[in-house]
């Protein structure tokens, strides 16, 4: 992979600018849901009842000692379990089959964890909704988190489409309710996890420059999260952008700001501090009864050239598990792990259920699953999107993992009740 051999400065430039290209895409994400009744009007009977009923009999292993996140992708000729004709809620930028992606093999893999093959069964939407009856779930993060939710809505569409019950306009803070199950999903948009804003005074290379307040919570999510039964938090790609870092309301340095009088503390500094602040905010929640999942970084897969010189993601198959991850992904991932472990100790003392949704390896192994050039009309010019993910596709695994984790939690819950 040439990308990996480029100098670190080039790498920074790549990711910084990718992020910018990326985020111009987002406003189209929820255009399908502009009409609040649209989802209702479109209710369709499930088309795959037979497959699903069979799957409901699968037994889920609850072996605590098995790490479901360590494993490999194996062929699954039965996949996928929905497509762009059965699920209308796939946004354009993830709708690869609609825009003519010619190969279909990328939809035909399943995750096989080491030593506990059955621990992550095919997603069972009936089971998921039954567990979630009367509950609420929040997804906190950026556009990759939105990919995660879109996948969930499609997986669940085999049973029911939700109603848009958002209380504020726009795509950043949405709510959907599954009426039959009284289950609500809410999204909380946060780019850096902590308080941030575009820097109003320093123009930089024509790009945005962000002020990131590494020790201040982003109250748009922290103030609201305490009532949810399940919270999934993640952060990644925005941290690559040029930022000025603040602590205690004072500038302490920056990341890739290229300003002569400011120390470059690197992305790693900001990434760690932002996670620490966010995790501390969760530890500080009063009366939080829910389960908090930190989802680890889902990397991009640009190859062959720099992102703006034709870098692309053309692979049609997963990596084999021995494929080495790129250095930055490993470093970001390790920071998440370290900050998680640190917070987990505190969480245990306080009785807060903090869990790791450790998806980096599985997603790293799927360079074949990105939207690439199939997130829009073929004649539309533009760069390849090797950050977001086709639906159906490998990003669906996030929900398989989530369900497996939630089931473990529910098992513990019922055991606790018996005692
Ligand atoms: C989508 O799935 C349905 C139901 O399984 C199937 O009948 C249809 O042929 C699929 N469409 C495409 C384009 O794969
Ligand atoms: C629906 O669930 C919410 C909590 O998620 C609960 O407060 C409410 O009472 C439930 N409504 C019904 C009709 O069960
Ligand atoms: C933060 O800054 C204020 C003054 O601006 C100072 O009094 C205080 O000690 C600082 N706190 C920390 C933790 O550095
Ligand atoms: C750093 O330099 C920029 C312009 O190069 C200037 O606007 C800014 O005020 C300087 N900051 C400090 C802390 O000196
Ligand atoms: C991974 O293993 C396969 C065979 O098992 C080998 O062909 C391939 O070169 C290896 N790749 C790396 C990056 O080591």
UniProtKB/TrEMBL annotation:
It is found in: Membrane. The chain crosses the membrane at residues 12-33. One of its GO terms (molecular function) is O-acetyltransferase activity. Residues 64-117 form the Trichome birefringence-like N-terminal domain. It is a single-pass membrane protein. Its main location: membrane. Pfam families: PC-Esterase, PMR5N. Coiled coil: none annotated. Keywords: Membrane, Signal-anchor, Transmembrane, Transmembrane helix. The keyword Hydrolase does not apply. GO terms for cellular component: Golgi apparatus; membrane. Residues 120-405 form the Trichome birefringence-like C-terminal domain. It comes from the Eukaryota. Belongs to the PC-esterase family. TBL subfamily. This is Uncharacterized protein.
């Amino acid at each position: 992979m040439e990308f990996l051999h480029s100098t670190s400065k080039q790498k920074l430039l790549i990711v910084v600018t990718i992020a910018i290209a990326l985020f111009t895409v987002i406003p189209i994400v929820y255009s399908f849901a502009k009409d609040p009744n649209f989802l209702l009007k479109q209710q369709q009977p499930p088309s795959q009842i037979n497959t699903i009923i069979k799957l409901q009999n699968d037994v889920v292993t609850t072996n605590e000692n098995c790490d479901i996140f360590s494993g490999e992708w194996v062929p699954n000729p039965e996949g996928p379990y929905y497509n762009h004709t059965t699920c209308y809620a796939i946004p354009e930028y993830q709708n690869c089959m609609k825009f003519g992606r010619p190969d279909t093999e990328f939809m035909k893999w399943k995750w096989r964890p080491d030593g506990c093959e059955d621990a992550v069964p095919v997603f069972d939407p009936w089971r998921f909704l039954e567990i979630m009856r009367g509950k609420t779930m929040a997804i906190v993060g950026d556009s990759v988190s939105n990919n995660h939710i879109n996948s969930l809505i499609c997986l669940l569409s085999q049973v029911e489409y939700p109603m848009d019950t958002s209380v504020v306009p726009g795509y950043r803070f949405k709510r959907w309710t599954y009426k039959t199950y009284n289950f609500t999903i809410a999204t909380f948009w946060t780019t850096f996890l902590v308080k941030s804003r575009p820097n109003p005074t320093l123009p930089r290379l024509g790009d945005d420059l962000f002020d990131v307040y590494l020790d201040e919570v982003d109250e748009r999510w922290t103030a609201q999260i305490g009532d949810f039964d399940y919270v999934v938090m993640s952060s990644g790609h925005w941290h690559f952008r040029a930022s000025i870092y603040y602590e205690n309301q004072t500038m302490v340095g920056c990341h890739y700001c290229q300003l002569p009088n400011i120390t470059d503390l690197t992305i790693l500094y900001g990434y760690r501090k932002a996670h620490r602040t966010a995790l501390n905010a969760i530890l500080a929640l009063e009366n939080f009864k829910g389960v908090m999942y930190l989802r680890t970084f889902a990397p991009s897969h640009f190859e062959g050239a720099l992102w703006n010189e034709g870098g692309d993601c053309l692979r049609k198959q997963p990596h084999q598990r021995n494929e080495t991850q790129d250095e930055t992904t490993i470093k970001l991932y390790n920071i998440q792990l370290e900050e998680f472990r640190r917070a987990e100790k505190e969480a245990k003392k306080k009785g807060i259920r903090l869990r790791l949704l450790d998806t980096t390896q599985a997603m790293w192994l799927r360079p074949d699953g990105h939207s690439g050039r199939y997130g829009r009309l073929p004649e539309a010019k533009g760069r390849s999107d090797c950050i977001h993910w086709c639906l159906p596709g490998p990003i669906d695994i996030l929900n398989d993992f989530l369900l497996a984790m939630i089931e473990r939690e529910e098992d513990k819950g019922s055991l606790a009740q018996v005692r």
